[in-house]
Amino acid sequence: MKQRPKSTSPGTSSTPSRPPSSEEEEEEAEDPLDALISRTGCAAQHRQLQECMAARRDWRHCQAQLRAFGQCMARRQWVLGRQNSQPGWDHE
After folding, report:
1. Domain boundaries, given as residue ranges, for the chain
2. How far apart are the first and last CA of the chain?
3. 12 falls in which pLDDT band (50, 70, 90)?
């Protein structure tokens, strides 16, 4: 009995004009968490933390990056809290 050849890897196809699948489109779309972090202004600190975690594979070795990211996010929360407590701030 003959075995069929294995299918091609994702993203390759024998049909060159094939539209991208929804799975491929999702891979190209920005991650919602990354988009949220980008809006905080702390994307650089988050990227450094992720790079450390990928390299060291132990969060305990990434304390400096973790503190930097946490401090950035805390500053962002403080600024937002100050804006929300200002008179005339519209909450809607």
Report:
1. 30-85
2. 68
3. very low
